[in-house]
Structure formats: structure tokens, C-alpha cells
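REQUEST ID: PR-0412
SUBMITTED BY: lab tech R.K.
PRIORITY: routine
TASK: structure prediction, single protein chain
INPUT:
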Amino acid sequence: MSKLFTVLVMLFFHVLDDFRLQGILADMKQRSWWKEQEKKEKEKQEQEKKEAQDNKDTQKKQNSELYRHDYIIALFIHSFSWTFMIMLPLAYHQGFSPNGLFLAVFAANLVIHAVVDHLKANAKKINLITDQLIHVAQIVLSAYIVLWLAA
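STATUS: complete
OUTPUT:
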């Protein structure tokens, strides 16, 4: 497979993973989704039980604490999936015997993707265009490092 075609496959896998394969992770990586689930759970509990007000307050606090950071694992699961997909063509080029540089690029992509998606989905600091430009830059830089720089 040519190096240029490898980059095109990486870009295709990016689109496939970021827009088609995400499924529930697209929702779960947003804090707002977890808050909505918490709200639904509270409404369900209120319908099922008519408890004293102090018990309800205790339950609300426990639920908030329990799910407060769950979106983070969803971000990393999606980031791992995305990173694996875009690095797969590079792994093919290396005969599926990744070296240390490959693993370093993999780890960097995983962290960068999680941070960028957090900035878009939760912090609301960047828009989709910026998010996608950063991810395309990750792909191009990864290909350059693994296919040309390390070759």
C-alpha cells in the first residue's frame, strides 16, 4: 500500500469512527448526558417512592457524586477506538509489529483526541470545525512521523 493511500485510509477511518461508530459514546462523553440520566433516574425514584425529604436530598447528593466523572471514561474509550482505527493502516505498514515510536504516537493521539473532544463536548471551547481540523492534523502528523520520519 502506498504511503499516500495509507493516509487516505487513515482519513476514511477517522470519518468512520468519529461519525458512524461512536453510537452511545457520542452521548456518554458529554457531562450533560450524565446529568440528564441522573435527572431521569431521580424522576423514576420519585414516582416509585414517597420518601421523606431528607432521604431525597441524601440520594440526590449520592447520585451526583457517583456519576460526576463518568463522562471521562467514555471520552477515553472513544479516543482509544479512534486512535486504534487511524493507527491501523500504520500498523499494517509496519507489518503489525509496532515499535516504540509507533506506541508513543498512539499514546499521544489517544490523549490529544480525548482532550480535544472534551474541549468541544464539555468545555464548549471549540467548535466542530476546529475539532475536526485538529484530528486531521493528528492524522497527517502521525503518518509523517511513522511513514516518513521513522522510515
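NOTES: The chain has a mean pLDDT of 86.
REVIEWED BY: pending
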